[in-house]
Write a structure and sequence with these properties.
173 residues, 53% helix, elongated
């Protein structure tokens, strides 16, 4: 494998030693071993990588130099938000009042409102993520059986022993 003369063998080893990012360190180590004359298969065995990865790493080093071995994921800003800050402000204002059909706000209701008022069609995931980022949390009443007898439940709570004194899986004995 041919390695370009961007750095000497000693400079490559220094880069391996001083690299703080583990991805960058791993890549410099592969190039260092390639510069020493090892084959892609031998380097793959040492670095616990595939031979294809070794070949691509050396090819990138040859083409771009030491800068090509940096982990560029840290500079990736990610996808731009689905709603602009102004649209998010409008959503927050809408959430302060009741939904158009009354009741409580739900993800599907908010999604429909965003589509109707802002003209943007979003799936539920970005809606729930937006609600989470705005500090909202899911609040739903606990389910109750339609035929539940409230008086019988209260009587049971008063007569049954505390959970700490019960036997069985929840009692811990």
């Amino acid at each position: 494998m041919t390695v370009a003369d961007h750095l000497t063998l000693n400079e490559l080893w220094r880069r391996v030693k001083k690299a703080k990012d583990p991805i960058e360190k791993h890549r410099f180590l592969a190039v260092y071993h390639a510069k020493r004359g090892l084959t892609a298969k031998e380097i793959a065995k040492i670095t616990l990588s595939s031979t294809r990865w070794v070949q691509e790493t050396v090819r990138r080093y040859n083409r771009e130099g030491p800068e090509g071995l940096r982990d560029k994921r840290h500079q990736n800003p990610g996808q731009k938000p689905k709603l602009t800050p102004e649209e998010q402000r409008r959503v927050l204002e809408a959430l302060q009042g009741p939904p158009p059909d009354g009741g409580l706000w739900t993800g599907p209701k908010l999604r429909d409102w965003v589509e109707r008022e802002l003209g943007k069609k979003l799936s539920l995931y970005p809606i729930y993520r937006l609600l989470h980022e705005m500090g909202f949390a899911l609040r739903a009443p606990r389910p109750r059986h339609a035929k539940a007898d409230g008086e019988a439940q209260e009587a049971f709570k008063k007569t049954s022993p505390p959970r700490s004194r019960r036997r069985g899986p929840r009692g811990g004995r």
